[in-house]
Design goal:
Distance between the termini of chain B: 44 Å
Structural class of chain B: alpha/beta
Number of strands of chain B: 8
Strand content of chain B: 5-15%
Number of helices of chain B: 8
Oligomer: heterodimer
Structural class of chain A: alpha/beta
Largest interface: A-B, 100 and 68 residues
Strand order of the largest sheet of chain A: 5-4-3-6-7
Strand order of the largest sheet of chain B: 1-6-7-8
Number of strands of chain A: 19
Helix content of chain B: 25-40%
Helix content of chain A: 25-40%
Largest sheet of chain B: 4 strands, antiparallel
Bound molecules: iron/sulfur cluster
Distance between the termini of chain A: 57 Å
Strand content of chain A: 15-25%
Shape of chain B: globular
């Protein structure tokens, strides 16, 4: 009998075009997502070398990073100009490039527009067992559907456009198993924060993570996307979750999924993908749901995780001297002192959005906390930025927009927004934001901005109380 | 791409751990459609603090950067590699790199040398004394004028790309027959992947649901 394989090994084997003597493999890429920020230099490279796009129909382009989240169409139905000339030029370049190279494009004013990693699954562009790449590190998100999905640099974007392949070394495998049942008020975001807190920001380097266990199995596709999305914050270029009935039910009938007989054949193939019993991972990490509380970050690395009931750690509490030094710098940047209770930290900004937490379930979870309440007086800005136009429509149909607006939130157009502050949505220097995004790096949400990564429900709780708060107390009060 | 065989010169004794790509080049510098001129924005937040290594005239124009663990973590932006190239850096020496960054570095002729932390500590001392460091891909060594000698490893294909300044896309395009054969076989075993043949793969009907 053949030896048992992990899901990663199966997908890899099915995509090897050629293996070189040194072990490097030419890997076929089934799906390629393109956005405006990391693609212009790739298209100019093709143009300079006189090269064509090999399979334009396997690529989907959508603008997201740069777009302002204010209205895109005026009262007269005309498209509004983008104020920042550099952003406008990058968006115009994408439009020119997709037209010239014949690539499917979702326009900024279509309902289907959104963050690449929200659009891919939503349109059924992301399929189990495919290789999927994008010039963006959070491409790991798509692994939630069982796709081998990872971020690439612009030279690789150009390589995929020209050849539909990449030259890669096989990664090592790492299983992260989460057993048990999640407690009251604990979400997928808390699970992935706990995982990164445990393995560290470089814990998954060189590995592809497969998330397994009862907790993962029990999550919706939205929750799984949140988990897989942040694999890269633990150093892993890709994360995988085995496709199952939840996956098939999510995909069926979406615009870009196979139909009819092809659907049946595809599902039969997808059922062969999960790791075999007895498959061996290079590393295994175990967590138990009982140990996971609503969590958040205190520092400037996504590994700086504490439960909301915790305190700001003392730098001396870390064994590694370089981590102690990093913690000192982080605390200085974050304006926090060791021993402070996380729940006593006041915030001025709230951001509910990003490819980690901007899907319909995320907005529902936040709205459930906000309903019938008002944001606290100290909050200067509270943004809700849906992940796509379809999420926005769905939320409006459910009346979620009114709950947010009545509470004092701003209800915006879809895009990356305050996750990376490339558009006008920024946190001012020295001010603090409870954010549902994925990176708390120095300057990520604007120069000098202080970020605490939280779940949507926790961001809502922070908006209502004006400080980092335990969402369980607010839900209990409902 | 310029071939790199040996790089000799001073080094920035930076040494910081978990340097993310937002530190190497902040997001507001990414609104460009070219690869040039990003050196101006490199390490902007670090350089905002007086006494930083990047503005110290003793290290100006160094071709080598010494850093801590997990260098280049975070975003996939190749702008980080372009910014380093633009500031004249041809070699980074660190205990580890993010996978995406090391790939981007090599594609831009930057050598990501991996050495253990004690070697890094030693090289930082050498750099602080203003002494040159030599990184040689022929012998796969890092040497100093104090007789230090550290060997490092790099996978053979990446080493060849660096030393010959190879165009990877050109290499892959030469494998066109193999790619076409793969596509023909995939069309049989997984026909739903292809857009054009069945038109079921990527056909778009309506906007869809959340
Ligand atoms: S939402 Fe943030 S993390 Fe996600 S793709 Fe956009 S910028 Fe990147």
């Amino acid at each position: 009998m053949a030896s048992p394989l992990t899901m990663y090994e199966k997908i890899w084997a099915d995509h090897v075009v050629e293996r070189r003597d040194d072990g490097t493999c030419l890997i076929y890429i089934d799906r390629h997502l393109v956005h405006e920020v990391t693609s212009p230099q790739a298209f100019s490279g093709l143009r300079a070398a006189g090269r064509a796009v090999r399979r334009p129909e396997l690529t989907l382009a959508v603008p997201d990073h740069n777009l302002p989240t204010t209205a895109r169409v005026g009262a007269d139905g005309q498209r509004l100009a983008i104020a920042d000339p550099a952003s406008a030029e990058q968006l115009a370049a994408l439009e020119r490039n997709v037209a010239e190279f014949g690539i499917t494009y979702i326009d900024a004013i279509e309902a289907r527009q959104g963050i690449v990693h929200v659009v891919g699954p939503e349109q059924g562009f992301t399929l189990p067992g495919t290789t999927l790449v994008c010039g963006d590190s959070h491409t790991s998100a798509h692994g939630a559907l069982g796709a081998l999905a990872f971020g690439i640099g612009t030279s690789e974007v150009e390589h995929v456009l020209a050849t539909q392949t990449l030259l890669l070394q096989q990664a090592r495998t790492m299983e992260v198993r989460v057993d048990g049942t999640l407690g009251f008020g604990v979400s997928a975001k808390d699970v992935i924060l706990a995982i990164i807190g445990k393995i560290g920001a470089a814990g998954g380097t060189g590995h592809v993570i497969e998330y397994t266990g009862e907790v993962i199995r029990g999550l919706s596709i939205e929750g799984r996307l949140t988990i897989s999305n942040m694999s890269i914050e633990g150093g892993a270029r890709a994360g995988l979750i085995a496709p199952d009935e939840t996956t098939f039910a999510y995909l069926k009938g979406r615009p870009m999924v196979p139909q009819g007989e092809d659907w049946e054949r595809a599902v039969a193939y997808w059922r062969t993908l999960p790791s075999d019993a007895g498959a061996v991972f290079d590393k295994t990490v175990l967590l138990h749901a009982d140990d996971i509380a609503p969590s958040l970050t205190w520092g400037t690395s996504p590994e700086d995780v504490v439960p909301i009931t915790g305190v700001v750690p003392a730098p001396e509490s870390f064994a590694d001297p370089s981590k102690q030094a990093a913690a000192r710098k982080s605390l200085d940047y974050m304006g926090l002192t060791p021993g402070m209770r996380m729940q006593d930290v006041a915030v001025e900004h709230i951001f509910i959005g990003s490819c980690t937490n901007s899907r319909i379930e995320d907005l529902r979870a936040a709205a459930a906390v906000v309903r019938g309440r008002k944001i606290a007086g100290g909050i200067k800005q509270a943004l809700v930025v849906p992940g796509s136009g379809l999420v926005k429509r769905q939320a409006e149909a459910e009346g979620l927009d009114r709950i947010f607006v009545e509470a004092g939130f701003e209800w915006r157009e879809p895009g990356c927004s305050m996750c990376l502050a490339m558009n006008p949505d920024k946190v001012p220097a020295g001010e603090r934001c409870a954010s549902t995004s994925n990176r708390n790096f120095v300057g990520r949400q604007g120069p000098g901005a202080r970020t605490h990564l939280v779940s949507p429900a926790m961001a809502a709780a922070a908006a209502i109380t004006g400080r980092l708060a335990d969402v369980r107390e607010l839900i209990a009060a409902n | 791409m310029e071939p790199v065989i040996s790089v000799e010169g001073q080094a920035y004794p930076y040494g910081v751990k978990n340097v993310d790509t937002d530190i190497i080049i902040p997001a507001h510098w990414l609104k460009t459609t070219s690869r040039e001129g990003l050196g101006k924005g490199a390490f902007e937040t670090v350089r905002a603090v007086a006494g930083n290594v990047f503005d110290d005239p003793a290290y100006a124009g160094s071709p080598i950067l010494i850093a801590g663990d997990n260098f280049g973590c975070g975003s996939s932006r190749e702008h980080a590699a372009w910014a380093l190239t633009d500031m004249g850096v041809r070699v980074v020496i660190a205990p580890s790199y993010s996978d995406i960054f090391s790939g981007n570095a090599i594609k831009n002729g930057i050598v990501p040398v991996v050495l253990p932390q004690d070697a890094i500590d030693r090289l930082i001392d050498v750099a602080r004394e203003g002494q040159p460091i030599t990184v040689d891909l022929e012998t796969m060594t890092v040497t100093t004028s104090f007789q230090d000698r550290f060997t490092f490893a790099l996978d053979p294909f990446r080493r060849q790309c660096l030393m010959e300044g190879l165009d990877e896309i050109g290499i892959t395009l030469a494998r066109d027959t193999a790619i076409s054969n793969y596509e023909a076989q995939a069309m049989m075993s997984r026909p739903w992947i292809a857009g054009e043949s069945q038109n079921a793969g990527i056909a778009v009907k309506g906007a869809g649901r959340t």
